[in-house]
Amino acid sequence: MNHDHQGVFCPAPSEPVAGPSSAFWVVVMGVSGCGKSAVAQLLAQTLGLPLIEGDDFHPPSNIDKMQRGIALADADRADWLLILGAELARCCDGAVLTCSALKRSYRNTLRSAVTDLRFVHLAISPAESLKRVAQRPGHFYPPSLVASQFEALQDPAGEPGVLCLAGDAALATLVQQAHVWLGRTNATCAE
Ligand SMILES: Nc1ncnc2c1ncn2[C@@H]1O[C@H](COP(=O)(O)OP(=O)(O)OP(=O)(O)O)[C@@H](O)[C@H]1O
Ligand SMILES: O=C(O)[C@H](O)[C@@H](O)[C@H](O)[C@H](O)CO
């Protein structure tokens, strides 16, 4: 059992957390460069929810591996996904999480942490992903790993609680579409 930063009582992360009926948890997912951080930041801001940046929770060994151009394996991602699930569960009133969540089993690990977890999948082409990743000087993730993201990706379309969006649309459009899907049509979305 634990408490979040506001002292709200939370069940242990081993049981999926169910919040107030107005609460929801959203994962913005997809391959490298698809726009997870950009969209999630706006979404969290306009929904008034905390933002959890999944990349901030990778152990140094994972960052080191990616920096050296080695794709993460299932075993590298296992503990990271459990930690992200615990972070979601810690936010009793909901949260927006950025996480690649490339495989169904990864999404199911996150689903086991909170009830009715939603996923917004930003789908982009390998060419667009490569272009965006190559344009990020100083970022730890190398363009040489982009192909491995698409090899690992299992399309979440058809799974429960999933919205698939074209990640090359304008940011404001993407956030607006997510709001409508979440039933929050009145919120204003800034570009
Ligand atoms: N809808 C969009 N249209 C045009 N450019 C975008 C869009 N979304 C994001 N970008 C740009 O693409 C780049 C990658 O975006 P972002 O960092 O949000 O992706 P990401 O999925 O979080 O990547 P990673 O997981 O690799 O960190 C950034 O330069 C960002 O400004
Ligand atoms: O599961 C993964 O392979 C990783 O989370 C990657 O997606 C990177 O962390 C991200 O792309 C960095 O930019």
UniProtKB/TrEMBL annotation:
Keyword ATP-binding recorded: yes
Enzyme class: transferase
Gene Ontology MF term list: ATP binding; gluconokinase activity
Top-level taxon in the UniProt lineage: Bacteria
Name the UniProt record assigns to this protein: Gluconokinase
Enzyme Commission identifier(s): 2.7.1.12
Entry's family note: Belongs to the gluconokinase GntK/GntV family.
Pathway: Carbohydrate acid metabolism
Organism of origin: Polaromonas vacuolata
Alphabetical GO biological process terms: carbohydrate metabolic process
Swiss-Prot/TrEMBL catalytic activity: D-gluconate + ATP = 6-phospho-D-gluconate + ADP + H(+)
Record keywords, A-Z: ATP-binding, Kinase, Nucleotide-binding, Transferase
GO cellular component: cytoplasm
InterPro entries: P-loop_NTPase, Therm_gnt_kin
